[in-house]
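Q: My labmate handed me this sequence with no annotations at all. I'd like to see what the chain might look like in three dimensions before we decide whether it's worth expressing. Could you predict it?
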Amino acid sequence: MQIKKLAVAAVASSAVVLSLVTAAPASADYAPSTSDVVGVGSDTVQYAIDFMADGDYIGNTGFNATARNKVINFDATPDANARLGYGAGGLNGTSTATSNCAPGTGGSTGTGNQSATHTGDRPCVLNPTIVLRAGLKPVQRPNGSGAGFNALKADVAASAHNIDFARASSSRTSGATYNSITLGTDILAMLTSSTTNAPAGGLTLAQLTEIYKCTAGYTDWSSANLGSGTAGTIIPILPQVGSGTRSSFLGALGLTDSTVGACAVNAEENDPEAIDASGSPANAIEPMSSGRLNMYLGKDSTGTSVGTGYFLDPSCAYAQVAAAVAATGTNQARAACVAAGTPLAPNVTYNYSGGTGTYATAWSTSRNMYVYFRAADVDSTTIFQPGGTRNWVRTLFYNPCSGTTPAGVTISVANGNCTGGGTYGPGGAPYIASSTGQTLVSSSGIAPSYAATVGGP
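A: Here is what I predict for the chain of 457 residues:
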């Protein structure tokens, strides 16, 4: 984005030169214009839309490369590695001392003005903010499927239209006000350390339910109820409140936030480093997106290698080259940071038996990845791109062989303005359903599987 500058010179006897400068308001991110399309929500889905908008890390370009009006996809967290903006402490922490939130932090309403340490929030977050449109004040960044969809609903209720779509990794009750598309599917499975104390045979849904309830007989890996692994107190990790991954996982277990046991701890969803950060990696487990793990491993949704992993070591400065530091005492040796960047290589694996990529003897579930938007936007008369013929929804996500064009022409097979055997309206498949769009989805580790659902699931 270019900031415009206007200079006006006035020459007087003192030869004074005056300059007037006009600049956009300061913002941590690009502040979208009224003609851009803005999305928020799910951590699991965010990279698929990031890549669709701006291209992936293996050289495929995205929609914005040739577009005048852009797709602005606000990630769930302010960190490009999808880490929390502050910390994962809070209610259900490992001890009373670490369960308290610092002044000004916390997920409950009004904590930004607090001046004393308080309890009851999970996690303890800085509540990072975004500017949804140029000229607006910062608002809380929606983190997760629930937060994103609730923000879209609030935007609809306010008749504001500052948010155009919401990403979700679990279905939202939407009614006639919203439509949705499924851009693909993702497997959710249990992650452990590569040197875990968990039994080798994998964990069943029934066992996981009792582990996350902290039921007696299910709190140590040596328990016969779990297949008698190596002794160690289990640390069950959950994604943050408001996460679609959390709701999908707890729903599969038949649990709610109120029935989860006190031994469970919270971390940012899909962060494999949470295993090591637990303090006892061999005893920790967490549900994690297979698509996200693919990105750490440098694989697409088919498991095919696309090179090194996407996420670089954030402790290495840009283009930094540094020598390794030898271990001293209890300190670990650190690997060199290289000019090309050092990929993160978390010491984790999925908890299952069998060959690579199979989940046959351990619990896992395949879930749809969604994008939600206003049903009314499908037939909006506002054309998205200069010189174009379609609105933003039909351009990007959903172009049914029904409704009307911006010019008021009925879209139908009978009128001869549908394509793909009557599947799509004028202009053909929306960008996300095109071969380019589906390739970009696959680069995020999500298995492409486009489908539209009128009225939302």
